[in-house]
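User: Quick sanity check before I run a bigger batch. Here is a single chain. Can you write out its predicted 3D structure?
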Amino acid sequence: MGVEARGVILQLSSVVVILVLLIIQAQANQNWYGKTVPYKPADEKVTKLHFYFQDINDLLVARNPAADKFSTLFTSLYIVDNPLTEGPELNSTIVGRVQGLIGFAAQKETASLMGLSYLFTDGKFNGSTLIIVTRNPILIPDREFPIVGGTGLFRLARGFANVKTVLLDPVAGIATIEYNVTVIHY
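Assistant: Done. Predicted structure follows.
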């Protein structure tokens, strides 16, 4: 076999090796998921929490002026980043933050749709969150909100929050809401 034939065979061998490696890589990219195994949850825990949502820092990010004909805040969308405190006073110890969106979607009553993350920044729950997504009829003093998820120590959380308005001052744009929360988690 001549030198030229050996060179061609070497080049063809290199091309075959590269093609095989590309095929292996393509197949590996198709396996983007892991093996499915039966789920065996740990024992559930129930945690009771009591805190206050100090609604003081809402920022209006959108409102349709055509909605001015309604007596409610219909079409208003707010971004929220407010403190959670141990007590109802503004200077009470901060135990977390509530962050998310509140949109007013009711034309005939003062009610909002909320998607909020309650981030705890103190004590053993530091870094854990609870997620509440619900309709909030604001002027009803006692309400119940569903917990639809969580992270950290509240991973896979569910449960409910009994909510009571302690202070509502629409002129100043502030409110204090008491939360008694029952969290079921792993």
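The first helix runs from residue 3 to 30.

User: Great, the batch can go ahead then.
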